Amino acid sequence: MSTVGKEWENSFEEIYDGAIDESNPPLPLFQKVYDGAIIATSYAEILLSQAIRRYGPDHPVGYPDTGYYLPVIMNLSGEKVTKLGELVPILNRMRNQIKEELNFYNARLCGESTAYAAEIIEAIRYLKGENLHVSPWTGFLGDPVVRRYGILLVDWTIPGQAVIVGKAKSTEALAKIISDLQAKGFMIFMAYEVVDQAIEAGLKLGIDFITFTMGNFTQVIHAVNYALRAGLAFGGIAPGLREEQRDYQRRRIRAFVLHFGERDEVQIAAHFAAIFLGFPVLVDHELPEDEQIPNWYIAHPDYETLVQVALEVRGIKLKILDIPVPFTVAPAFEGEAIRKKDMYLEFGGGRTPSFELVKMVEESEIEDGKVEIVGPDVDEIEEGAAISGGIYVKIYGRKMQEDFEGVLERRIHDFVNYGEGLWHTGQRNLCWYRVSKDCVAKGFKFRHYGDLLIAKFKDDFPAIVDRVQVTIYTDPKMVDEKLEEARKVYASRDARLAGLTDESVDMFYSCTLCQSFAPNHVCVVTPQRLGLCGAVSWLDGKASNEIDPTGPNQPIKKEGVIDEKKGIWASVNEFVYNNTNRNIEECSMYSFIDRPMTSCGCFECIMGIVPEVNGVMITTREHGGMTPCGMNFSTLAGSVGGGIQTPGFMGHGRPYVLSKKFISADGGLGHLVWMPKELKDWLGDDLRKAAEEQGLGTDFVDKIADETIGTTVEEILPFLEEKGHPALTMEPLM
Amino acid sequence: MAEKKKDRNRTIDPAALEVLARTEGSGIESAYDRYLNMQPQCQYGNTGICCTICIQGPCRITKKASKGICGAAPYTIVARNLLRHVLGGTACHSDHGFHITMVMKEIADGHPGDYSITDSAKLKMVAERFGFPTEGRPEQDVLKDVVNLAMEEFSRLDKKVYSAWLEKTIVPERLEKAMECNIMPNSIHKTIAESMAQTHMGMDADPVNLVFQSLKTALCDYIGMHIATDLSDILFGTPTPVVSEANMGVLEEKMVNIALHGHNPILSEMVVKAARDMKDEAIAAGAEGIKCMGICCTGNEVLMRQGVPVLTNFASQELAIMTGAVDVMVVDVQCIMPGIQTVAECFHTKIITTIPNAKIPSSYYVDFDETRAQEKAREIVGIAIDAYKQRDASKVSIPQVKHKVVAGFSLEALTDILAAVNPDNPIKVITDAIDSGELAGVCLFAGCNNLKVIHDGSHTAIAKELAKNNVLLVATGCAAGSYAKLGLMNGDAVEEYAGEGLKAFINRLNEANKDKLQDKLPLIFHMGSCVDNTRAYDLVTALAQEWQMDTPKVPFVASAPEAMSEKAVSIGSWVVTLGMPVHVGVMPPIPGSPLVDGIALQIAQDVYGGYFIWEEDPAEAAKKLLGALQERTWKLKVHKMAQEQYETDAISKTW
Questions:
Q1: Residues B303 and B252 grouped into a single domain
Q2: Which residues of chain B fall below pLDDT 70?
Q3: Does A35 touch chain B (CB under 8 A)?
Q4: Does the CB of A131 have a partner CB in chain B at under 8 Å?
């Protein structure tokens, strides 16, 4: 539960108590911090004054793809800067808090001023346009990236954020440290020459690897404005509550700074920006006693133990899972793509037969830990081949239920992708596997799929998984044979799922997984409405509750119906009220207009009303562009997230669009007038089927506009009229 | 160490050493003696924390007094002194450029006097750079456009109009950098005035603001010197390869020896011409003829264009007189030690000062009126012939030290040589050699002599080490003087000192140009006087354009191993501003403020791409310069790797 509250106000500073030996304070260090803050703020002033001279005080200023204005400033002071001229009083305030008296408190204020200065300098750099960097350099990371990983960062799935700056003693030494952090699953920000060293070492860099490479100097502020947005997006802490925001950073963002090589004054002042937010700094060379602060500013020249010490100082304890495979397994490799030229072999993907199946079995039918290969192994397969392949996972557990098979089966996607050099997409008999040449060179054999899955299933689902056995089929005949068996299982599962409706169950499940960072939000998951993050279905909730009965997925008995059409129950209301810090009194399951469900910030999609055409539009996290409601995803997210009800707007998961309960109280799918083409493609035939089932006709999908038709009402209206979109003649939404 | 400081032989130049040895105990004092007398030098001044700007002071920063009486912090004092130094340098170079501009104005106005346009092609090139039409127009009209613009570059007051000479000679990224940092000058004189105001007591206390104004002022130095070079080329011709000699052995016992000392070719060119014309008068006086020779940068000017030999460089200017064989030392502006007059009084030598703002008591003063240039030059040569008659043979002792010099490498001349290898894209010859690793990069050696380090010792030690490591070397000013005197500016030096890559590179140029060149190309390419440093920077710009990137990515460094004058401070500052690492071989008065020092050494790189390296030890300095080049070639390599791996259209702008 949230610990954010009044009791934390003004007490945050206590974390620094006792750090300084008052009889021998590190004055030379403080002097450098002071000098650095002077340089940073004076430089920012020169740039700002000149930018105002050149472009005028009303010239817009901001980063691309964010609804959080200049996040450092918005977070710490609450000021939503949109124009250059607004920065002047802010910078003056920051200049004014730099004091000549040298002490730890003033040094931290110097750090804060330096962070502001860096944000201003970077914002001015972005006046030149949005395409300032080429890959793998990232620069400012837009909100989609914050949403993609921010949740994992604050719920500690990603164990922490390592900010790495400077130039290491050697490329090899740097590569070792980065690889170590990647294997541990860290989010990594790099600035200065460590980026060049990482490129030289051929490390996997970029957004997909949660390894963000920035340029030099003030660009390092993008690590800070990333972290600070997590507090705004998921913490539910109001902008400008400086102490609460700092406290959130200290508690939820497990960041630390590793500085390699020479330091300059501005960098040292920037280090104190980190300390101001509760993050320690480790330097890779000897420093005199009077330039260190125990637990906060530490010299640690030994590269071998640098990461370990950083974790200790920051209080990060890792859950280490030792899997006997010859490649690294970590979330950092989840987004790794394997291109054709780097691929050793593949199966599935519509080119060759493939399947993956998790099947619950009796105790007598399983040999725990056994991995069997039926057909040729990797070394018998030619490089570049597309083979037939199937993965059959048998699971026995005393609390295992047939309903959980699908839940566990879908995790194969994540588990396989965690492997460095392994790639997976799709599911069931539409799955697609690739193995890289590098991975095979490291010694990959098919049995390692089994080793990986056995370890991960047991580790992630200890309450329901007792024994696991995996068989990998590569013999084409056997694949075909087992594929038939799998198809039957899928079909029976689908039949069971089809009968699984909100009406057919007497229990919904809550999801409060995000409350560690979004204390005022609760998801109510029903069979026909999955969690807004797209990751928690009703069956997932049920399984999770089985695994951890006191965990985030609690059963909510469906009792005391208030409005059946809108989906309002007294029991649900009570649960929501009690679990949102008494913020949300009532909530409907099937309306986005009347008391809609709140959002934590993890939503895959946001829907919004388009009153001019009596319609609803949907945009996705992946779609950066404008939409017919006049806002892009980031801007919409700013008004929808954080546990508030915004009638007419709501976050939701992608598959919800296909549900019969999709805004059923408001008229349903027929109102859908616009969505990004990518979402339309992703939903594919399922959307046609859903439309047909709801009596809208299979051609309904072709009546939905997308960005290729237009992104304003004016642009899409003629299209809707021409196609005879039903929304135009349906009962008014409002 | 203490012993060493007492040693007055602070030079490696054998000619200078010979003169020093011969005059030891004679009572004739030179800078080498005065340097010893000056020890120990004031440590407050040395580190920059002595403020004499108002007469409450001098204020010096001590443990007890951590601020000036007005409250100025060390960072204010150091930054303000720095700006004052840059101002001195900028004013001097600009004064030089302005002087030439005024001569050009007379030509444009139809009063050429003894001057005329020598290089029409250069005039056309400069005019076209600024968009002035040239086709079918009388040369004088074109010149008028160029001169009017040059005059505006000095005098413009409009805040909204910026220096064209800067804008049109740098890459667009550098221009935008100067614009965004508010250091793009409107004009030279306006900037000098605002900087003087800014450094008055009770004005600017912000060290960053003062440093940025120093850079803006330094950019005016660039403008002034670029104008000087362009107009000098138009007036006297753009240098082409020339073979000559250098060091005191060029003095002739049987000739009238005229030493041309100072900086501006306006005077020296005229004297060289007059001397050629007055040979008969010299013979009549008993000499075999008249020989002109150069000291400092006016020496470089006439070497580059006329092949006039080099007598010596800055530190040893007095020693040249001590040979007893110099009849006249005619000087114009800058780097003229007043000590020359004192030494001259022990010999028959006449010192002739010529410029209203550079006079020395007791010297001859011939007011050099450009409208009567030949007449004045003849007057000077006449004084020399008269002096020759008074030469005391018993006092004459000419060190027999001289080396062949191959000089005259304007960027145009260099491009011409490269074109023999690649006619379509001459500059690519250099970028290819760097890309392939044959060359490690390019280094410009510039600047003065400074007896805080061994005369010519730092220049030569660093250059030899860089040559060994395959760095393409260019030089200007008294650095070039060192290399000329000590035999590093000829083909033999290539064989002796160049690493395999550099040797192969130069030999390829030799081979391609064998029909055209009178002699083999040198180890170090002489690009002119210190006012010609923009020639070397134009090379940086050309390299950046070829690579299609901003200058901070170009593997190019500059070194002033024996920096001394305020001009060196201003040059160094604009070279840093325009993106280059700059080594300074003598500690400048900056470390008194760690803040300003930190900006100069590190933070400047983040903002401008260039930065300073202070290093007095030549071996260490060479290591650091090579390190700076390696860092840039490494990054270039990595960024190209990234471009390929990530399939991006452009290369990273990060430096």
A1: yes
A2: 1-5
A3: yes
A4: no
The pLDDT score that the predictor gives to residue A517 is 59
pLDDT in tens, A304-351: 999 999 999 999 988 767 788 999 888 778 778 888 899 999 999 888
Residues of chain A contacting residue B635, judged by C-beta atoms under 8 Å apart: 193, 196
Whether residue B63 is contained in a domain is answered as no
Q: Give the domain CATH number at B211.
A: 1.20.1270.30
B132 and B222 share a domain?
Answer: yes
Looking at the fold, whether B202 and B84 belong to one and the same domain comes out as yes
**Token pair of A2, please?**
């949230």
Whether pLDDT at A496 is above 90: no
How many cross-chain Cβ pairs, A to B, lie less than 8 Å apart? 98
Count of domains forming chain B: 3
For an interface test with B, the pick among A35, A98, A259 (most B C-beta atoms closer than 10 Å) comes out as A35
CB contact under 8 A, A266 and B606: yes
Cβ-based burial of B243 (10 A; exposed 0-12, middle 13-18, buried ≥19):
middle
- Which value does ipTM take for this structure? 0.96
Distance, CA of B504 to chain centre: 28
Residue of B228, B214, B226 whose CA lies nearest to B572? B214
B44 located within any domain: no
Q: Which residues of B touch A54 (CB under 8 A)?
A: 179-180
Q: Are strands A467-473 and A389-396 parallel, antiparallel or unpaired?
A: antiparallel
B89 lies in some domain: yes
> Do B633 and B485 lie in a common domain?
yes
CATH of the domain at B572: 3.40.50.2030
Helix A404-418 / helix A476-498 crossing angle, nearest 10 deg: 130
Interface test with B, best of A45, A124, A199, A268 (most B CBs within 10 A): A199
State which H helix or E strand residue A684 sits in: helix A677-693
- Is B642 in the A-facing interface, judged by CB distances under 8 Å? yes
Whether residue A180 contacts residue A160, with contact meaning beta carbons closer than 8 Å, is answered with no
Residue B636 belongs to domain spanning: 403-646
Residues B337, B433 within the same domain: no
**Measured between alpha carbons, how far is B52 from B59 in angstroms, rounded to an integer?**
7
Chain B partners of A49 at a C-beta cutoff of 8 Å? 182
If asked whether residues B223 and B253 sit together in one domain, one would say no
Q: Report the candidate in B469, B557, B483, B558 with the shortest Cα–Cα distance to residue B522.
A: B483
pLDDT digits (tens, 9 = 90+) for A435-450: 999 999 999 999 999 9
**Are B162 and B180 within one domain?**
yes
Residues of B in contact with A200 (CB under 8 A): 634, 638, 641
* Residue B85 and residue B135 in one domain: yes
* Nearest residue of chain B to residue A206 (CA atoms): B646
Reported in sequence order, the residue ranges of A142-186 that DSSP labels E, i.e. its strands, are 161-166
B374, B395, B416 — which closes off a domain?
B395
